[in-house]
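Thread title: Can someone regenerate the structure for this chain?

I was given the following input by a collaborator and told the matching structure tokens would be attached. They weren't. Posting the sequence so someone can regenerate them.
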Amino acid sequence: MKAVILAAGEGARMGPFTASVPKVMIPVGNRPILEYVVRALVESGVQDLLMVVGYRRERIQAYMYKAAKEGTAHTSCINANQPYEEAVAYFVQRLLEHPEQNAFLRDFAPFARKVARSGLFNSLSQTLLKLTCPGVPDIYQGCELWDFSLVDPDNRRPVDFDLRQSLLKRLAALDGADAGTPVREVAGHWQDGRIKLFLIRRLLAARRADPGLFEAGDYQPLAIEGWHAEHVIAFARQYEGRALIVVAPRWFVDLYAENDETQVGEAIWGDTHLILPETLAEREWLNLLDKDSLLAAPGETAARPLVAKLMGVFPVAAYSTAKRQDKTSV
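Best answer:
Regenerated them for you:
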């Protein structure tokens, strides 16, 4: 089932509230209105959701103004062409207005959904790699959730730290839940960005619990075989008897082009599996994201774990041989 949300923009009557956020993000009970709407649609069986927000087209106009200046084809910072710049601003305005009757948006929306979906999953893989590869991870402030900023001046907007603190408290409230419950919760509502914050929080907790493994552990690429072996990056890190396994999918556009809306699982990965070296094959692994153990399934050897099983309902995976950690927050 599909649904389209046509959300209005700034609005004169709600000016005090929409000065910094669009109407759909106005908080009600510490949660944006949009979250209640999306949850109701999901519970009704909607799987494909498109939202068109007519909010501050000035953001795109400002981006196009800067791009035109720096492109120097028809205007520049030194030789300004005001009629051309005004024409570009007007073009953007007409291109984005009246979404319910806009032929461009109707044609553009399917492409945007495809790119956005793949971009979100790619963001999770990049975040996983950044927090597990050798080196010191750096998280640009404000990018703990999905970030849809254009280049400056758009990416210079203030960060909503109150929202992030609120989402962190909600994630912390899930710490006492049964293994797998937090993962299913955030994976089921990946549109709101909590899934990325959840990944960051769990991996930072793992780094704090075992700094030696992440700071001094070696790096060992892992071989992958099966249906979609080329769509997976996997490696292990070891230090003083402890080890880490990381599985990060890639090239999502091609991967999901053949599998429609399937996010994870055997339906998409089939027999794709890792090949673990002997030193890692017989270890007991703890999932750093859902705190569950990895056991070989019937017909599966410990040395060749299936990618579908490693990830479960989450789009990426990280396992450690370190002892089960206390449920502490970051």
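The chain has a mean pLDDT of 82.
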